[in-house]
Amino acid sequence: MKSTPTLKQLAGVVVSAVTLLGAAPAMADTISFEAHGPDIFAGGDTFAEAGYTMQVLDTVAGNGGGFAGAIANGADPTTCTVAACPVGNNSMYYLGLNDGGLNIHRTDASAFSLHGLDYAFLAPIGGLHNFSYGQLMLTGTAVGGGTVRATFDFPLQNGAGNYVFGGAPLNAAFGQTKLSGLNISACMFDNSGNCYNPADNQAQFAIDNLNVSAVPEPSAYAMLMLGLGGVAFAARRRARQAGQSAPTLPAQA
Amino acid sequence: MKLHPISSAVLVLLSAMAGAAVADDVRHSYIVQLVDKPAATYTGQVTGLAATMPAAGQRLNVDAADVQNYLNYLDTKQESVLNTISAAEITHKYNVVFNGFAAMLTDDEVRALKKNSGVAKISADNIHQLDTSYTPTFLGLDKAGGLWDQVGGKGAAGENMIIGILDGGIWPENPSYADRVDENGNPSHTGATRVYDAPPASWHGSCDTGEGFGVQNCNNKLIGARYFKSPSKSLHWTEFDSARDSVAGPEGQGGHGSHTSSTAGGNANVTAVVGGVPMGKVSGMAPRARIAAYKICWTDGATGKNGCSNGDGVAGIEQAVRDGVNVLNYSIGPGAGGGSFDDPIEVAFLGAASAGVFVSASAGNSGPTSTTPAPVSHISPWLTTVGNSTHNRSYIATVTLGSGAKVDGASSNAMTPSAPMILAKDAGLAGVDPANPSLLRCFGGTDGVPALLDPAKVTGKVLVCDRGANVLVNKSANAKTAGAVGVIIANVPGGATTILNQPHSLSTIHIVKEDGAIVKSYAAASGAAATAALGDLRAVFDPNVPAPVMNGSSSRGPNVANANILKPDVTAPGTDILAAVTADLTHAQRDAVAAGGVAPVTDWAFYTGTSMASPHVAGVAALLKQRHPDWTPAAIKSALMTTAYDTKSDGLNGSVFWDATAKTTGTLPWGQGAGHIAPTPAADPGLVYDATEIDYARFLCGLNAGVYSAATCQAIGTVQPYNLNLASLTAANVLGSLTMTRKVTNVGSTTATYTAQANLPGYTVDVQPAVLTLAAGAKGSFTVKLTRTNAPIDTWVYGSLVWSDGTHTVRSPLTARGSALAAPGRVSSEAATGSKILTVGTGFAGTLGSVKGGLIPATIDSRTIGQADVSADTNSLCAAGGAPGVNVHTVVIPSGALVARFSTFDADTTGHGLSDLDLVVLKDGAVVGSSGGSSANEQVQLIKPAAGTYSVCVVGYAPVDGQANYSLNSWVVTPATVGGNFKALMPSAATVGGTASVGLSWSGLALGKRHLGAVQYLLNGSYQGTTMVEVNTNDPLPQFDSARDKYVNAK
């Protein structure tokens, strides 16, 4: 896993941040997508779990109502045809498709924070060389204005040649930010190492086990300042190795 | 999907479905492929075990220590899987060209193996069917400077090459297989002079003894004879439990293995005799090659049918590669519906090719003029697939009238001694008008009408029938039914003027109308005293006959497994081929042979089919390997393709049912491939397009074909199918423009400068670089960029790419189809609730539209069916409203239907898979689809069917004990037939040359059912294609899809 060292460093930041927080008043939940069976979504569709509403976002290149999301059953080996689903997750997980994204907010419109999630690359075809072709992009809207961002290189393949899920620890970056909403999407690297979206429908991702907590009262702003420091740090350490990028994946004939 | 660990993932699904599946305790034969590579393709992934795949152009040596070590490793790994099933049920183990085994398994055992992590794939052990006197001259082999001359003359052609024949055995007494010559220099088993030395030192084969076959039957020409059969198989009386080809005649099915082996490598200077008539001297293509017979086809004791199981076939391929053959011939098929790359036979041939063995295979006899057209078989790029075309020698025979007058006509089987002759008008049943045209034309049961001929008048006589209205072979068949001993078919004034060689079931001569008048006036003058003899069958060379022409029965492309791989590859003579066969023996004579007591007679016959074309290529390949020992199988194939020439017009211009824009025309690549082989130019092709195992592996990885593990694919990467280094360039989906890559090797002796010329109507073709200067042995790469200009979309167009250095012309077919969308034709699932993501290729910018229907379970109509009259035209019986053994199910299809599918299944039919039913679908009396496999697993699918009333006929081809209960499953999917909350979503933006994801989902489907849905893709309202969605919630087993068609009836 070529991006592991970077992730390890992020994890170190997380540990110290958690230590500082001590007994933060959080109502921890996991959005696991188990409540909703396998399904597909167009831009604008919504579904709910654990007090959160997920709204599917179509690609910005489209008309807003195209195919942009799905819930996949990791235990069904026939979910992907030509496309190559990630492996190692036998539960339900969410797929962001065709350069689309997912907006998450509390159904009761209160604030929440995000501490981590599992994520993977959804390859348009199988048999790709073992590179990280893009990133997962997280953009949070902070209560009271401003945004926080984090990006993570997609995890590489396992020994069997399949893309797998990896963990994105977010306490340092997001955990202390009170969010009113969160957008998750993906981007693809070009030859210069820039990550772009829309990306000819190939910016596609899988996510699962979003570790979230509702923040019922505005009591800990001071501590949040520490967390924002961590965000800036993480943004500087965006994980990616030079020379691994590819502009566009080959079309399947 | 192979990207998932099948073992754990399937388990969850299966546990949720417990109880939904139907289990049959009857054992069926399956082929189980294990996860490790076989020795022929193993490249060193296991720590401590070196690679065993041989270098390019070399053959695998199974005695090498590394190979033995790896085989031991595979054996140990196999044991852990084999231990889970009863040893008694294991019929074959494989590890050289295929890693796995064949076994008789119950449904429960198959479902258990599906979950075993050591198992890569389980295939039903499908049964396939066995699908030349003059042809060396037609091929130019024996001309001065021809390929025979180049390798030392006819007396050295094929020297020390070993041709392995996978077929129905061999009749060793035929002089085609003698290693001695008589005092005249003609091959003879009893000749005084042995003209073959001991086999090459590399030979490891043996002469396995068995019923009617001893070690004395092998010699230094026929150097190997082995047979492969599951122990439980019962044999028909015409069979021999040995490598001996079975008996021919009315009940027997033998002759095919002798025909193919003598065509490929039979001795030269062998006098052939047909029906007592000497037909001149015959020779195989590589007359000095050694022959090794591997018998894998058997006539079944219960059914009387001859078939070749995949399990026996893989065992034969495996042993032939171990033994050290240079070339394999496989005139067997067809794969159901064209086949797939992961079929065990195709995978085993990949092993053979990797081990350095050239494989020639028959394209199939399901061409546009056959009764049940089907796609070309043997679709894999690592083997050479051969179509069947004509040559310009024809066969005539003589009618000798009692008056002494003689007239000649077309015939391939005339052999009726003098007998009373009667005109059809005088042979009618009581009450039949003598002027009834149907009587004159000898209509009868085979035409689906009541008998008109009176057996009391016809028995023992030669019957004269008029041409017209019905199929020629029906006239002779009806005459035979009435007891005739011979038939004269006479053209009539105003009718067709040709005379044709047809596969008549009775001694028959077809004469022109002038000669018909002579025969009739003699009959009128002589009355009851008239006699006629039919005989003097002989070959005549007719330079005015255009040849070669593709035979209408030769299976056409495009390749259904992947349309970017051209199939067939080449064509060769396969029509009216004279070669060795087995004799027509009585049961007692057969028993005497089995006991080893007599020297059996030899025989020859004319056969027609791609089965006969394939061994021509096998023999020529042996010559090319002899001429160029360092050439790989791919280099030999390339040389045959780039030097091939076009066939002549066959007049066909229909569409094939699996690809509406592909035409049946024989001169197109779908018929002739790269063209007709030209052996002598093939020996000096200039350039070759070479490929080895790594290229095929990348190709298979790119298709997710499941032949290589994901770990292997990760290590080696992928190649797009249109970029596989074949001598044909085929692009099935040009999404705007497409760049193909190729690499050529200069196999000439000097540096040469080649210039490219390419054309493709409606496209610009840019070859870069357009000039290649290559030293001897050097390789050069180039790209071919196709950009669509005014070619219509979704339509195949045909052109060529030619490299020329002024001496050599290296021609490749260049074939392309512009598309707006490339989408999978079919997706499937076993989950009652599921979602699905499929990647499509996009050749447009904007929004994709769609229409969907389903998911619906089948409408099931359960009935009983008897035995049909299979000699009749069952299509006519269907159109006529049915008959005994022909049940009509009427189905109304509304307008706007997306798809209609009709299926029967072994699982729903009495007979445990042994009942043979067929399906034919008619609309307005015309056949719109048919399915004719050898069991009750049949399917006809109509995409975008026209609205109307359809007759779906189930035909009782051979129900067990004459009767079977079956269920016809019908799905008519329209936008209004919805179920399972089926959803389909399309991307809202797409780019030219890009990809996009399409989404499907459903929920709450009933368990234990087969559901069908469909999605039509639309661009600005116009149709772009269909993806079928199958959701089988019955924990399906691998399905048996066995072929029934044999070679085209001998003429």
Automatic annotation (TrEMBL), chain A:
List residues of the Ice-binding protein C-terminal domain: 214-238
Keyword entries, A-Z = Signal
The reply on keyword Protein biosynthesis is no
Note whether Transcription regulation occurs among the keywords: no
Q: Which residues form the signal peptide?
A: 1-28
Extract the NCBIfam families matched here: PEP_CTERM, PEP_CTERM_QFxxD
Q: What is this protein called?
A: NF038120 family PEP-CTERM protein
Protein source organism:
Rugamonas apoptosis
Taxonomic lineage of this organism? Bacteria, Pseudomonadati, Pseudomonadota, Betaproteobacteria, Burkholderiales
UniProtKB/TrEMBL annotation, chain B:
Annotated Peptidase S8/S53 domain ranges read 158-653
Q: Which keywords has UniProt assigned to this entry?
A: Hydrolase, Protease, Serine protease, Signal
Superkingdom assignment: Bacteria
Where in the sequence is the active site?
167, 256, 611
Q: Which GO terms describe its biological process?
A: proteolysis
Query: So what family is this one in?
Result: Belongs to the peptidase S8 family.
**Name this polypeptide is given:** S8 family peptidase
